[in-house]
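Protein modeling request. Please complete all fields; requests missing the sequence field cannot be processed.
Requester role: graduate student
Desired output: 3D structure, token encoding
Chains: 1
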Amino acid sequence: MQLATRHRSAVAAVLLACAAVYIAVALSQWLFGVGLDPRDDTLSRAAGIGFTDEARGTLFSFVPVVLPAAAALLAPATRPGRVIGRLTRLVYVLYLVIGVLLAMSAARYGFDDVGQLAEEGQVFIDTRAAVERLLLDAVWLALAVIGLLSTGWSGIRERASQAEGRGDDGDH
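Delivered output (172 residues):
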């Protein structure tokens, strides 16, 4: 039984590490992915314009949203599992912070038709496309909020059940 708990903790930690890598790579692609195209800056990369426009696809994808939730569900109720639960919430908070910044940067670029026209000679992301991307980004961020709240709720539920268990043991 102890081996199964250690195995579950190890698998949960690997899932959580994979999610953290996805988030870190998306941040790197967004902030440091400089290409040769003069359009390639942080705002255009956030909007998905330029040669290094992978950040949106990396961050707003299935893997970094689901892996922390899977890690929290898989983590045992032991001390390593509680640590994994806390780290899961931290990963979700990082995802949300970076996701909000990325989405707002993309929206800022997309809503600035005049600036795009002046700097690049044409409008690459119009207002309609910027609104659509912002709505889709909001859906991914809402999923991450649901994941964050569900991991927080399961931690509260776990502590309450442990407290009840201690009370039951003392009554018998």
